[in-house]
Write a structure and sequence with these properties.
Elements: H1 19-34, H2 38-59, E1 63-65, H3 77-85, E2 91-96, E3 105-109, E4 115-117, E5 123-125, E6 135-139, H4 156-163, E7 169-173, E8 194-197, E9 200-202
Parallel strand pairs: 1-2, 1-6, 6-7, 7-8
Antiparallel strand pairs: 2-3, 4-5, 8-9
């Protein structure tokens, strides 16, 4: 695994906030990802999963949060299905939006479970069964070498990680095409614990979760 310089969550990032630039980085990363041919997206997803496998073995979660693929994100469903099958006690969960300004909840997911679209059109379990993940796989749009990410701008994952005590280990998952020099983090932004792409595993960015 590739080590990076540890980034303290209590340190105010040096880059000045620039909302317009952050929005453009987000837009550009999503557009590049959505433009991938289906076969290439599948290939990159497979490579990413191969990088993710040893990290999850190292972190050894019992409860794993992940996201249904949205707007060309890596498809981790087959990987999570295999992860579940390897040990009966394992539980996988999908995030559920409770309210626009609230942390996400997580509901148990099993292969073949009935799903329903939420307000954003993203599949979630039809029957809610609360789960507290040990590790959460967080989708990346733009991201940088310090462990910071840009999501979709709603702040859901930031609120979720901040609200849980202890916080789950956060692993950003995304394609290298979203990598930028800096996302221009704002003072309240927190780095992820790890980032995994098709090219490798990067981190830990926060010392307490460098297990």
């Amino acid at each position: 695994m590739k080590d990076s310089t540890l980034s303290s969550p209590s340190t105010v990032p040096e880059a000045a906030p620039d909302k317009a630039l952050r929005q453009e980085m987000r837009r550009s990363a999503i557009a590049a990802r959505e433009s991938l041919a289906a076969a290439e997206r599948e290939r990159l997803s497979g490579l990413l999963c191969e990088q993710l496998r040893p990290l999850l073995a190292r972190l050894s979660p019992r409860n794993l949060g992940f996201c249904w693929p949205y707007r060309g994100e890596p498809d981790l469903t087959a990987f999570v299905t295999d992860w579940l099958a390897a040990e009966a006690a394992r539980v996988a969960a999908l995030p559920v939006v409770v309210a626009a300004d609230a942390p996400l909840a997580f509901s148990a997911w099993r292969p073949g479970a009935e799903l329903a679209a939420d307000a954003f059109g993203i599949p979630v379990p039809s029957q809610f069964e609360s789960v507290d993940p040990d590790v959460v796989l967080v989708p990346l749009n733009a991201f940088d070498a310090a462990g910071y990410r840009l999501g979709y701008g709603g702040g859901f994952f930031d609120r979720t990680l901040a609200a849980r005590s202890p916080a789950p280990i956060s692993v950003g998952v995304g394609f290298e095409l979203g990598r930028v020099d800096s996302i221009r983090p704002e003072p309240h932004d927190m780095p992820l614990d790890w980032i995994v792409t098709e090219s490798g595993t990067f981190g830990p960015f926060r010392g307490k979760n460098g297990i």
